Structures are given as C-alpha cells and as structure tokens.
Amino acid sequence: MLSSLLMMAGVSSWAQEIVQKPVVDSKGGPAVLEMNFQTPATQIAEQIYGLHNLMMIICMVIFVVVFGFMFYSILRHRKSLGHKPATFHESISVEIAWTIVPFIIVIGMALPATKTVVAMKDTSNSDITIKVTGMQWKWGYDYLKGEGQGISFLSALSTPREQIGSPGHLPTQARGENYLIEVDNEVVVPVNKKIRIITTANDVIHSWTIQAFGLKQDAIPGFVRDTWFKAEKIGKYRGQCVELCGKEHAFMPVVVSVVSDADYSKWVDGKKKEMAALADDPNKVWTVDELKQRGEKVYSSNCVVCHQATGKGVPGAFPALDGSAIVAGPKEAQIHLVLNGKNAMPTWKSVLSDTEIAAVITYTRNNWSNKSQENIVQPAEVLAARK
Amino acid sequence: MSNTTMDHAHTAAHGHDDHHQPQGFARWMFATNHKDIGTLYLIFSLVMLLVGGVLALMIRTELFQPGLQFFQPEFFNQLTTMHGLIMVFGAIMPAFVGFANWMIPLQIGASDMAFARMNNFSFWLLPPAAMLLGGSFFVPGGATAAGWTLYAPLSTQMGPGMDMAIFAIHIMGASSIMGSINIITTILNMRAPGMTLMKMPMFCWTWLITAYLLIAVMPVLAGAITMTLTDRHFGTSFFNAAGGGDPVMYQHIFWFFGHPEVYIMILPAFGIVSQIIPTFARKPLFGYASMVYATSSIAILSFIVWAHHMFTTGMPVTAQLFFMYATMLIAVPTGVKVFNWIATMWRGSMTFETPMLFAVGFIFVFTIGGFTGLILAVTPIDIQMQDTYYVVAHFHYVLVAGSLFALFAGFYYWSPKWTGYMYNETRGKIHFWNSLFWFNVTFFPMHFLGLAGMPRRYADYPAQFTDFNMLATVGAFGFGLSQVYFIFFVVLPAYRGGKAAGDNPWEAVEGLEWTIPSPAPFHTFETPPTLK
C-alpha cells in the first residue's frame, strides 16, 4: 500500500518505461507486509513458530509489568506533583527475589527449546541425501543417496537483469511475484520424506536456508556440515543465501519444489535422460566455432558477473579479459588459472566439465579484440591439465 | 636527580606561578590535560558518527525500493562494512573514552589521568587510523566489503582496502589498550583519600570493568586480523581449508573478541544512566552493591557466550545447548540493572530534564533490545533468524537506543560542567523526542522484515519487503536530521554561550564533579578533596 503509493510518486516520471505490477504475496516466499514467520511447512518450523510465540508472550508479560511500574512511577512520583523523595536504597530480600525469579524464568524458556535443538541435529535415517555446494554466486546440487542418486545440476537466479536494473539504468521489465527468489533449476524432493542436506562451498562461506522449513546451514569451504528437513506440504519453498559472500550475495536464491512421490519419480527419470543427453565425450575433437558457441553460454552463466559481457572486467576489482596477456599467451597458463583460481577468481575444476572449460577458454581467445595465437583448447587438454 | 634539575629549569623559565594554559595548535596537539583530551575524543567520535551516519543513509537510500538504483552491489557491501567499522571503532568506543577522560578524574578527585602523555598518544593514534579506514574507499577495489566481522575467506578476496582496514583496526586497538591501562591505573591509584572502591561513582565502576574487558579482548582481535593479513600476503593458511586451516576458526576468534566488545560498548552506558537516574529522582541509587556485582557478572559471562553468533555454522548439539543456556543467563544480571533503575525512580521526586528523558528512553528502548536478545538466544529461533534483519533490529536497539542514547544523556548531564553554560532545554527535548520517534520508525519495522526472512547485507530484496524498507528509510532520514539538529542547535550553541551553569546545576546530592566550578577549570583537584 505504502509502497505502491510511493512507487507511483517516485516512478511517475519513468512511467513511460515500465509499469510495475502491484506486489502480491510470493507462494512459498514472503507475503506483503508479513509481520511474522512464514507459514511453517515442517514440524521443526512448527516448533520454532511455537517457541517464538511462547517467548513473545512471556516477554510481553514481563514488559508490561516492569514498565507498568516504571510509568506509574513516572506519572505519580514527580516533583511537580509535590512528591517527596523516599530514602530507601537497598533491600536484600527484594534484590535476591529479582535475581532468582528471572533465573527461573530464563531456564523455563530454554527447557522447551532443548528438545527442538536435539531434534534439529538428528540427521540419521534419511531417505534422500543431497549435497549442496555454495559458490559465487549460485548453488550446486548433487543427489548422493536415495532415489535420484547421481542427479547433479547448478541452480542460479532466473530473475532477468532487466527487472533489477542498475545504477543509472532503470529496469525495463516489470517485476514478477517471485522477484529475486526464483531459480533456473529448482531442487525437487518428495513430500513427507526425510531429506538430509550436506553443505559445503567452493570459495567463501555461504548459507543455505528455507524459512518455511526452519532450516539454515552455513556452507563452509573445505568442510561439510549437515542438516535435514521433512516437508509436509506439496509446493514451492523459497529462501536466499544468508551469509555475506561477495557482490552478488543478494542474487543466489534457493528454491525447493516439494512434489508427490509419483511426480518425484517422473522428475528423476526426466532429469537422468536430460543429463545423459548433455554428457559430453571428453575425447571428442571440436572445431573452433563449435567451442566458441558453447563457450559463449558457459561465459554468460559463469563469468559475466565479474568479467562483464564486454570482457573489460571491473577496473580495480576484476581484471579485463579483452586484451589480457594471459588470454593472448600460452594456453597452459590460462587452463591452469581457470582450473585452480587465483585471489577472487574461484577454482572451476569442480564446477565445470572439461568440455565447458575448453569451450570458455576458446571463447575468450577468439572474442572481443582477442586474436590469440593458440586459439583453440580441446577438452582432452583440460583433462590432461587436471592430473 | 636529573628530574630535579629539569623541574628547576622548567620553573625558572615560567616562574613559580605556573598556571599557564597552552594555546592554539599546541594546546591540542601536545595536550596532556585530561579535559582537553576528553574533548578531542568527543569531537573525533562526533565526526565519525556523522561519517558513519552518512554511510547508513546511503544504505537506506539504496534500500528504499527493490532494484539497484544508486549503487553497485560491490559498493553497497563496502557501505555496510564501513558503516559498521566506523560506528563501532570510530564513534561509540572513542565517545565513551572521551567521557572517561573528562569525568573519571573529576569523579574520583584526581588531578589528571595517571599517564598524561600516553593519554595524548592514545588519542592521536585515532585520526591516522580513521584516515586509513576512510582512505581505503579510494584505493583500487575500494574499501573492504567483507562485513564489519571481516569473515574469512571472503576477507582474503578483498583488495588493498582490506589491508588498510586491518592496519586501522590494529592502531585503534593499540589506542584502546593504552586508554584502558590509563583508566585502570587512574581508578586504582588516584582516588581521593577516603574514596573506597565501593564508594566510587557507578560510571567509574562500569569503566573499570570495561577497561579490563578491553585489555582482555583487543589483542584477540588483533591476532585474528593479523592471521587474516598473513593469509592474504604471506601464504599462511590459518583460515584456508586447502592449506589445513579452518574458516570457522576465524569466527570463533573474532566472536571471542566480539561478544565482550558489545559489553564494552554498553557497560559505560549503564554507568552514565546509573549516575543520571538518582540525580533526577532525588534519591540514592538503589542497590549500589548489586549493581557492581551485576556489572561484573555480565563481564565474566560475556567471555563464555561467543558462539551464539555462530549457531548456523554447525556445531555439536552440546555446544549449542551450552551457549544457549549461558546466553540466557546474561538476562539475569541485566534484568537486575533495569530493576534497580526502576527501584531508584520508585517513590522519588522526579523531574524530566533532557538527561533524564534520554536515560528513561534508554531504559525503555534498550530493554526492547534486551528482549529480542533473549529471543535470539534460543538456538532454534536463532537459526531461523540468523543473518536476517531481526538481528539488525536487535543490535541497533542496544547500540543506538542503548549506547548512543546514553551518550546523549551523558552529554546533556555533564556539558554544563564542560562549557559553563546550560544547553537550551527546549531544544534538548526536541532532540530527544525526535530521536526516540525516528529511531523506532527506522528500526521497529526491521523486526518484521527479519521474521519474514529478509537477509541482512542485501543490496536488493524481494518486492514483498518493500513497504517496511520504505518506512525504515524514511525513519533513517528523520533520525539523521535529528542528529544534525543536535549538532547545530544544541551542541554548538551550548559551547558559545547561554545561561550560566552553577557549580551544581542539577542539585545533585552526590558527585565530586559538582563541587568544582563550571566550566571546570583547566586544573582541578591539585590537592585531593576530602570526602565526608
């Protein structure tokens, strides 16, 4: 309401550009003017919701009592009303009482939470195990155990940049209801099954969360952590990365699609066929044009946020590829850099396939003003460099 | 022996009646007088408050609407990081040291701080540190954008701005440690005869405890950021898993500093409020001894709760339970303080000049921050709220409505002693009511944003969060303007002139600071006062 009013006032001069639709609740995400937790979809989230309500009630009661005394005193014990000051300044019994009573209250608050803490940590007997890998700035998912084992994909923000805009450039597309909380590849899980999530990261710490599941687990590079959920309602649930991970921190959401068992089996079949079709033969010899074409796709989904579509990078932060000495020089150095990373450049060896790395390097060597002498890299060369 | 000759030469040159006061540049550059150094600290922190405030308003401007309107996300991250660092290390901490410098010698009847030249050094370390920090915006890659917590390994990805921030924090840490040594030595050795520890004003007590906290944890922070520095440049792997390190270890070390740090920023505030409430209730502080014990308990407990900042990193269930229960316990001594203040007000004869308004406002709004802290201490709830705007709301309730409001209260209470003039009471009240109102407009909606799941440190957000963000931005500008009003319509006029303040403008019953003239002469208590 407030937003639409102000939005109209603020954006009226831009109105010829686009008309933003009124914001509606996101299904599985936040509601407009939401003032409480999102509707719980797991028992753990249910318990957290209850704990929070309990805490709120206790705190409100204490608040009213304590400040009731204070405001009574402020109103009545005034010099302007001629109130004469008392002289008492201690009372052992009162002081002991207001130490012991709060002590009992806080223990009473913590006790019901204890059960939930223990339950949240119990990741045993899971039906499906999914490894979640945080990377700048998308999520990787590997189904490790249970139905769907072997499925693996990357999941990135699908909201187009045209909806976000950038300083000096207004958005040219109206925003959808799931602005910034939608992805290209959703995590699909069956309903009422215990899903164990293992988190790790490739570069910096990220954090994987779904509000409606009451679940949040940091993804730490070089370490694995685990947590679990059992969604009880079919639907889509949305979360975002919640640990500061660099410039695109706000643009790597999490979407989990909870489906029926039958739909899940269907999804697994489809996904497996899709993966088989996509798998590349690492020994195939490619032409420059084939690799360039493939490389452009890899570039735009992985490299463009830092090195930019123009290949010019961001001065001072991300080096330019257009005219770069490494891109123009011997290919071994570039293969090594892409595989292993350097400073802000992540290691790509666990994220991209040999073919994808070969393709994107070939692309950079033949694009913009670059005309490198060694202008083609074959997947087999990348494979060899991995050893 | 050489001392004697030097003293002799000195007195010969200036004559025996040596009450001259250095003037101009030299007075401030070579200041050894606790009052001058206190003023320097307060001016420095006010400037930093403005700089940090401008950064905050830039953040709120970007967040007024979804989408990226004004700043690229990488610059937005620099804004949030630098806002935090500047407010914590540049504004709040030096402001309390400024109060300590001004008031501790006056309150304990000492002639000056124990180490006058070190006092000068610990202040003059701050401007270079601030320049390093502020200058880092202009180096390639800009200022550090790793958040004020500077978590590894994100911090290893930053440009030279990160190194500048590390050095700036090193220098500020050295300054804090020297300041603390000075405060501890002054309090323990230079109290007027008859002033036992348990007769000391509460502000001195809280600062004594705070100073010990600072000495304990500033080196820990220095260690953490030094390891970051060597990880960045000298090939060590303290926080790099690929080399056998652990990124989470950084968080443990940081928060072992970071949690006592939050009490470093609030205990002196408790001290200021404990001075003001009795004066305006015209009644002695209720439960003096239990106040001292409560402050000490908070300080001790603050060392064993650090991991409650890290519940989502994944720790054993026993650790989660330990840190939850330990954190909940802090509510007990904190509650005792609030009860004591209210019992001090109870059946008093209260008036509500601006210091009292800010002190009562402090109790009311700080307690809201205390309650949200209690809610966040419950592990399962914390896991849901970790890194959301609920946390942002919580720590601004305790840091702005807590520390900053207490600093304002302290300014209104003691500035007549510093300037010799009464500030304008009407304007003080305008400042108070505006601050209180706009503060709540800014930060109260953030609770709702956090509950609904809006993550912090976000340059852009789902459109469902728009309304409360707009409200917060409007509030932030209101709050910012209230502080501009404070500087131009309260502080500067108060230094220029006004109604002369008597020696004891508040008719306070207790406090040596009210026995000397206003403004306080350059040298006070050259012969120790005698206590009744």
Topology at a glance:
The complex is a heterodimer of chains A (387) and B (532).
Chain A: H1 2-11, H2 43-76, H3 92-121, E1 128-135, E2 138-145, E3 152-155, H4 161-164, E4 187-190, E5 195-201, E6 206-210, E7 215-219, E8 225-229, E9 235-239, E10 254-259, H5 261-278, H6 288-302, H7 304-307, H8 325-328, H9 331-340, H10 354-366, H11 379-386
Parallel strand pairs in A: 1-5, 4-10
Antiparallel strand pairs in A: 1-2, 2-3, 5-8, 6-7, 9-10
Chain B: H1 2-14, H2 24-29, H3 34-62, H4 73-108, H5 116-124, H6 126-135, H7 160-189, H8 202-233, H9 247-264, H10 267-281, H11 288-301, H12 317-345, H13 354-377, H14 379-385, H15 389-419, H16 425-452, H17 466-496
Helix pairs in contact in B: 3-4, 3-5, 3-17, 4-7, 4-15, 5-7, 6-7, 7-8, 8-9, 8-10, 8-11, 10-12, 10-13, 10-15, 11-12, 12-13, 13-15, 13-16, 15-16, 16-17
Describe this structure in words.
The complex is a heterodimer of chains A (387) and B (532). Chain A is α+β, with helices and mostly antiparallel strands and 387 residues long. Chain A contains eleven helices and ten strands. In chain A, the strands form three sheets. Chain A has a five-stranded mixed sheet with strand order 3-2-1-5-8, with no helix packed on it. A three-stranded mixed sheet of chain A has the order 4-10-9. In chain A, strands 6-7 form a two-stranded antiparallel sheet. In chain A, α2 packs antiparallel against α3, α6 crosses α10 and α10 crosses α11. The radius of gyration of chain A is 28 Å and the shape is elongated. The N terminus of chain A is likely disordered. Chain B has 532 residues and is an all-alpha fold. Chain B is built from 17 helices and no strands.
Summarize the structure.
The complex is a heterodimer of chains A (about 375) and B (about 525). Chain A has helices spanning about 1-10, 45-75, 90-120, 160-165, 260-280, 290-300, 305, 325-330, 330-340, 355-365, 380-385; strands at about 130-135, 140-145, 150-155, 185-190, 195-200, 205-210, 215-220, 225-230, 235-240, 255-260.
